[in-house]
Design goal:
With 251 residues, the chain is mainly alpha-helical. The protein has two domains: 3-127, no CATH class; 132-244, no CATH class. The protein is 54% helix and 6% strand. The chain has helices spanning 3-8, 12-24, 33-45, 52-67, 79-89, 97-109, 121-127, 131-143, 161-170, 175-184, 197-206, 215-218, 238-247; strands at 146-150, 210-212, 230-236. Helix 4 (52-67) crosses helix 6 (97-109) and helix 5 (79-89) packs antiparallel against helix 6 (97-109). The two termini are 37 Å apart. 31% of the residues are buried.
């Protein structure tokens, strides 16, 4: 029997009881709520054949997920979310951006008021993201929509801040359009690998959480001209906004 099958063998009423106890405060005896709750989750809900280090790592992630949910709102997460998230969390340390996204998603699955944000597809989406792509999603969410620009010269991989600002300022766009473009432009310089920004955008579009949009061209950028560079607009679509709320809004 493999590890996930072992987990599935835990009776559902035991899983539910453990979370009920956590929510009701029954584990607060002797002032050991933190220690006992971690032990409950690790030994009752996740009796898997992990090494001690991986068990401790998983327990810490679970502790953070539980702590994010007010006691009165805690519910047992559905197996279709809890099992694959637990499997993924074994491989992410406390500093991992992707690990933090899995923790956020798990906390949503445990939250009676926010469980609707925990779409099952998000487990697979988070698992396919690079850390830089999480940063990019945050940027796009803040601007909504964002613009990304391509260098006018061959051999230049990407436009970072100073180059981007200089090109925008030198264009014949109106001052309002210049300010707006500066404000909503994607910032590759904040990524660990800025030269991959265009690949990241294409990947986020392929995952179905980011979409191209013409809306700015029909409104604030209608009639824009005189730019010596190309730029396009992208934004989080409906699924992308839900993904951001579930996995990144608290980070």
């Amino acid at each position: 029997m493999d590890e996930l099958e072992m987990f599935k063998a835990v009776p559902s009423d035991v899983v539910k009881a453990a979370y009920d106890d956590a929510a009701s405060g029954a584990l607060k005896e002797a002032g050991k709520i933190g220690e006992d709750l971690v032990k409950t989750v690790r030994l009752v809900l996740f009796p898997l054949q992990y090494t001690a280090a991986l068990q401790d790592r998983l327990a810490k992630h679970l502790r953070r997920a539980i702590d994010r949910v007010p006691e009165e709102r805690r519910i047992a997460p559905v197996e279709s979310l809890a099992l694959p998230i637990a499997e993924q969390l074994r491989f992410h340390d406390e500093k991992s951006v992707i690990g933090a996204m899995f923790v956020s998603l798990l906390s949503r699955a445990m939250d009676r008021e926010r469980v609707g944000e925990a779409h099952p597809a998000f487990v697979q989406i988070v698992g396919q993201l690079a850390s830089d792509e999480a940063v990019l999603i945050q940027q796009i969410s803040a601007a909504q929509p964002s613009a990304y620009m391509r260098p006018p010269k061959k051999g230049v991989a990407v436009l970072v801040k100073k180059e981007r600002e200089a090109l925008i300022d030198a264009s014949s766009m109106s001052e309002e359009q210049k300010r707006h473009l500066q404000r909503v432009a994607v910032r590759p310089e904040e990524l660990a690998q800025p030269e991959l920004v265009y690949t990241y955008i294409e990947h986020l579009v392929s995952l179905g959480i980011v979409s191209y949009t013409n809306e700015p061209w029909n409104e604030g950028f209608k009639g824009a001209k005189g730019a010596s560079f190309d730029f396009w607009f992208v934004g989080l679509n409906g699924l992308g906004e839900l993904f951001h709320r579930a996995c990144l809004a608290d980070e």
